Amino acid sequence: MNEENLLTFRNVAFSYDGEEGQRVEVLKGVDLTIAKGSFVSVLGHNGSGKSTLAKLMNALLLPESGTILVSGADTRNGEMIWEIRRHVGMVFQNPDNQIVGATVEDDVAFGLENMGVDPQEMRKRIDEALHSVGMENYTLAQPYRLSGGQKQRVAIAGIMAMRPSVIILDEATAMLDPQGRQEVMHLAKKLNREEGITIVNITHFPEEAVDSDRVIVMNRGEVLMDGQPGEVFSQVERLQEAGLDVPFTVRVRHELVAKGYDLPFGLHQEELVEHLCRLLLTK
Amino acid sequence: MQITFDQVSHLYGKGTPFERLALKNISLKIPSGAFVGIIGQTGSGKSTLIQHLNGLLSPTSGEITIGDVVITPTKRIPPAKRKDIGLVFQYPEHQLFEETVAKDVCFGPLNFELPESMAESRAREALELVGLDYEAIKDRSPFQLSGGQMRRVAIAGVLAMQPKVLVLDEPTAGLDPAGRKAILEGIHRIHREQNLTTLLVTHSMEEAARYADLMLVLAGGEVVMQGRPEEVFQQADRLRDLSLDVPQTVSFISRINQLLPDTARLPATLYREEELIAHVLKRLSVPKEC
Ligand SMILES: Nc1ncnc2c1ncn2[C@@H]1O[C@H](COP(=O)(O)OP(=O)(O)OP(=O)(O)O)[C@@H](O)[C@H]1O
Ligand SMILES: Nc1ncnc2c1ncn2[C@@H]1O[C@H](COP(=O)(O)OP(=O)(O)O)[C@@H](O)[C@H]1O
Ligand SMILES: [Mg+2]
Ligand SMILES: [Mg+2]
């Protein structure tokens, strides 16, 4: 399994079975490619199909029509399913639902045990995985004593131990305090940069998407926008119409520009601060 | 309803190896009609604190009063008074259980013996308040909704009870930006119109800044800071030490003020975004006096 395009969606449609046997169409005509090693953010209103997209990426769900390829392997190919799931790890919202082990290392070992990895190799992988998420000093800690951010990092270690190519964070920061959110985002960026892990970050916080390579915006089961953060977040009204928002800095600039002030577009606070100070001082 | 805590402690798992003192001698007073923002690191005791308000947890020691009801380690809140306290749990979607959304939201009102037609009209009102289309969603199964949709249904279930004290434990986690805003604006509106006392636990400093008139900061089972938002958010370093932060407006202003001469600084108390923008626009529109 190797290809530049790690994940490919070709004209994918998906429906859930409704209560009375009717089909409820939740994704239609989705075309996407996600390049190996990229950091992609996915935004979209509640019910727009983000989690469904994520579950299709690791063959938890199969497309109704169209094709999904993971490193070239069709997710409908039953023989590849375990290999695909090992390659595409998922972290969910609630940190308390994802930890199963009595200690941190037991938790990381869980997936490896299921895979039948031998004890020596297992030890090595656990240590590496905990090291990569900065939890090496908590090997024997009881998970319930950890902060929310630490629990999410342990969940990520469990995935790292499986040697994945992609980690999908499905709102993994939604339940965390500000520091926990930062911990998880820093870790995702580090794994992307230093270990070449492809990251798909599903989030409702536009700030988390600012530094990604690409932002995909879902709306009612379709891809509404797909581009670099600057291209996407410059369309303030269009995003707001889709129930979404833009980063704080973009919003403040947008309001000032609407009143006729001249400020260049920027995604980071520092740029706006600098230009606004100049404007305030010349007034 | 005024709420007071007098030296309240809570010990989980007393006498077991998992014994944990989650609240330590908490004393506080919340005036009737206040909108309280509660912030704190995960594990600081926020959920433990608020579960004492509707009798889900009893204090290990100390005393709580809510209006004229007194709760002690041995005295629980009378069942008839319970409907006055609406508690939206953390992960409220775990509480959904009926076959349809409409039945789920009506459950509380029917349980307190409201006639069916009234229960239905309350359910409609509550679902629309949280931004769901009643006709479109009423017959769907709550278990086949997206995470954000389930959360809205669960919040509607509590609002349909029309409580006097509204307690919300991270209600907007997982909601999209429009949903967050719609729900909090809706809650703030009922808070004012029905003169509720509202407690909002949140990890969003911006939400706390926008809605709260009183802030409680928890750390390690104690209330370590309290006061008006502008007082609490002045202490950025202290908040960061507690794994918290200041709203984006506050860090933006402090960065700007580092670059501006003393005489041109922005007031550090502009912690609400629209107030900040209005102030900047005003400054930009008046010619500088020399
Ligand atoms: N098990 C299911 N059965 C039937 N319909 C479902 C099921 N799960 C989700 N849906 C529907 O599919 C649509 C997309 O749901 P999905 O969970 O992918 O949304 P999402 O973008 O992840 O939303 P959120 O931001 O709320 O997590 C929604 O309309 C939802 O009601
Ligand atoms: N049911 C329980 N049994 C034992 N300990 C608990 C229980 N619930 C919470 N705790 C502990 O009490 C402390 C406070 O938890 P909680 O009130 O949930 O905090 P918060 O809501 O601020 O994240 C934490 O140390 C937590 O581990
Ligand atoms: Mg989802
Ligand atoms: Mg909590």
UniProtKB/TrEMBL annotation, chain A:
Pfam families: ABC_tran. It is found in: Cell membrane. CDD domains: ABC_cobalt_CbiO_domain1 (cd03225). Keywords: ATP-binding, Cell membrane, Membrane, Nucleotide-binding, Translocase, Transport. It is a peripheral membrane protein. Residues 7-245 form the ABC transporter domain. One of its GO terms (cellular component) is ATP-binding cassette (ABC) transporter complex. This is Cobalt ABC transporter ATP-binding protein. It comes from Brevibacillus panacihumi W25.
UniProtKB/TrEMBL annotation, chain B:
It is an enzyme of class 7 (translocase). One of its GO terms (molecular function) is ATP binding. GO terms for cellular component: ATP-binding cassette (ABC) transporter complex. It is a peripheral membrane protein. The keyword DNA repair does not apply. Residues 3-245 form the ABC transporter domain. Keywords: ATP-binding, Cell membrane, Membrane, Nucleotide-binding, Translocase, Transport. CDD domains: ABC_cobalt_CbiO_domain1. ATP-binding (A) component of a common energy-coupling factor (ECF) ABC-transporter complex. This is Energy-coupling factor transporter ATP-binding protein EcfA2. It comes from Brevibacillus panacihumi W25.
